[in-house]
Write a structure and sequence with these properties.
With about 500 residues, the protein is an alpha/beta fold. The chain folds into two domains: about 240 residues, Carbamate kinase, CATH 3.40.1160; about 140 residues, VC0802-like (2-Layer Sandwich), CATH 3.30.2130.10. The protein is built from 17 helices and 14 strands. The strands form two sheets. The protein has an eight-stranded mixed β-sheet, sandwiched between helices. Strands 10-11-9-12-14-13 form a six-stranded antiparallel β-sheet. Helix 7 links the parallel strand 3 and strand 4. The two termini are about 35 Å apart. It binds adenosine-5'-diphosphate (ADP) and aspartyl phosphate (PHD). The site of aspartyl phosphate (PHD) has 14 residues, from helix 9.
């Protein structure tokens, strides 16, 4: 009797599809010898995500509404996919013709769709989701063709209709019940691939409230996570252009080291406070199902990457595949031994910065107002959808750090309201510096060391806060000091952690 192959869900980001389609094909081929891969891709970006297909589609939607030139944007998307397909699909001309016809059909439909939106002068969140789906469709048609062109049997799976038209998205939010329903639908859709490797659109349908509003950019990570949960995969791999999660952003701190394992809580804090390596909703889903997440590099597939997992005693985290793929029986015991031999170190795990921060100070002028003061402040911010990243309080004073991607109109309104409670001042062009690490709970004096290190480097601290989780100590400094702060803290507080030789 042959054993079923272990399942791996592999997510490839837009820039990886844009720059390294052959690497993706090679990696999938290599894994498919021993494992059963499901490939999930985002929309192509030839250079940066900011200039990629999804951004272009959103711009085209804006242009259609403002009677602008959306057609030339669609033509640029069409040309990009047609030219790349001609360049990369070299072995099978029938396959290329089929792909070009499919690309043209998709772009023609999009043009008609936007023209109709212009006539009715409206693009609802649902319509915008449909427009965005074109990016992942084109990308996955292309990737499936690249694989088939090299004799790797692949099947394009379109998830844009995975939530049926009749499904009442108004009665539910993005809650547990919806995710369970969606997960079951995803598993059904993937079955269409049969024995071939599914190449699945990282766009998963028109969701309650709209995908862009509810999940935001980077939704493909979540899509891959839900597929991993539905298939009870052995590992979710997020392939990027960085070797994994580092002790600090490697572009900013040359001495940053690769972290070989990290907890979901730490990874969430890092993502939230400026080191976005994985979409925040992703972790919750897979960790609940005890599936490890591995961050890997498309340019260096032999590296072990960073594994995100709550603990190492459990089944899934210790039996996950390494690259190059080897049989599970060979893998389990050496990996277990390697993990148990690693010393437990009480150190911060990483340091990160989040730019474009505004600090808002409210000082209540009436002592007798302290009762309910904080409740009122947060209520009025909440009503205007102003999200507070950090907070530091006393009975009558509150300092809050907010990201500046807020609505200026709502912010101004909030200031007017807040002035009814006392004096208010606002400082802009600041930055949050966060030290993150699960071992910091037991590290006496770590906060003191953090602040004295910044003081020695002549960096003025505007605000200090320590999260309830105790795995994050943050402060706010001037934006111009961000890079210096990151480097001095890294140098002083992050002594070598276990690194993976690559
Ligand atoms: N602690 C960190 N570890 C790894 N990368 C980080 C960290 N902080 C910030 N980054 C940055 O996040 C980026 C994410 O990688 P990349 O694959 O390029 O992103 P994307 O998949 O969004 O296109 C890298 O360019 C890296 O410089
Ligand atoms: N294409 C979408 C979804 C996504 O996840 O992209 P990426 O994996 O390239 O971050 C976006 O740009 O938001």
């Amino acid at each position: 009797m042959t054993m079923a192959k272990q399942k791996i869900v592999m997510k490839y980001g837009g820039t990886s599809v844009g720059k390294f389609p052959e690497n993706i094909k090679d990696i999938v081929e290599s894994y498919s010898k021993h494992y059963s891969p499901v490939v999930v891709c985002s929309a192509r970006s030839t250079d940066t995500k900011a200039e990629g297909t999804t951004t272009r589609l959103l711009t085209a939607a804006d242009e259609a509404l403002t009677k602008g030139d959306y057609i030339s944007i669609i033509e640029a998307i069409r040309d990009d996919h047609v030219n790349t397909s001609k360049d990369k699909i070299r072995n099978n001309s029938a396959l290329l013709d089929e792909l070009l016809a499919a690309i043209n059909k998709e772009c023609d439909l999009l043009e008609k769709f936007l023209s109709a939106s212009q006539v009715i002068d409206e693009i609802s969140p649902r319509t915008l989701d449909s427009i965005m789906s074109v990016g992942e469709k084109l990308s996955c048609m292309f990737m499936a063709a690249v694989m088939n062109d090299h004799g790797l049997p692949a099947h394009y799976v379109d998830l844009s209709r995975v939530i049926p038209i009749g499904y009442d998205v108004s009665k539910t939010g993005l809650d547990k019940e919806f995710y369970s329903y969606l997960t079951a639908q995803l598993v059904e859709a993937i079955k269409a691939a049969g024995d071939k490797i599914p190449v699945v659109t990282g766009f998963f349908g028109v969701v309650p409230g709209g995908l862009l509003n509810g999940v935001g950019r980077g939704y493909t990570d979540l899509c891959a996570a839900l597929i991993a949960v539905g298939l009870q995969a052995d590992e979710l791999q997020i392939w990027k252009e960085v070797d994994g999660i580092f002790t600090a952003d490697p572009r900013k701190v040359p001495t940053a080291r690769l972290i070989d394992r990290i907890t979901p809580e730490e990874a969430s804090e890092l993502t939230y406070y400026g080191s976005e390596v994985i979409h925040p909703f992703t972790m919750e889903q897979v960790i609940r199902a005890r599936i490890p997440i591995r961050i890997k590099n498309v340019m260096n597939p032999k590296g072990n990457g960073t594994i995100i997992f709550p603990d190492f005693e459990s089944r899934a985290g210790t039996e996950t595949p390494l690259h190059p793929p080897i049989a599970v029986s060979e893998l389990s015991s050496p990996l277990l031994a390697a993990i148990s031999s690693q010393p437990k170190m009480k150190l911060p795990t990483a340091v990160t910065t989040k730019q474009n921060i505004i600090v808002l100070n409210v000082h209540s002028n009436k002592k007798n107002q302290s009762h309910g003061f904080l409740a009122r402040v947060f209520d009025l911010l909440d009503k205007r959808k102003l999200v507070v990243d950090l907070i530091s309080t006393s009975e009558v004073h509150v300092s809050m750090a907010l990201h500046s991607n807020l609505s200026e109109a709502s912010f101004k309104e909030a200031l007017v309201e807040l002035r009814k409670y006392g004096s208010v001042d606002v400082t802009r062009k600041l930055c949050i510096v966060s030290l993150v690490g699960k071992e910091m709970k037991q590290l006496v004096g770590i906060a003191g060391k953090m602040f004295s290190t910044l003081a020695e480097a002549n960096i003025n601290i505007e605000m200090i806060s320590q999260g309830a989780s105790e795995i994050n100590i943050s402060c706010v400094v001037d934006e111009t000091d961000a890079l210096k702060a990151l480097n001095v803290l890294h140098q002083r507080l992050l002594v070598p952690v276990m690194t993976t030789s690559t």
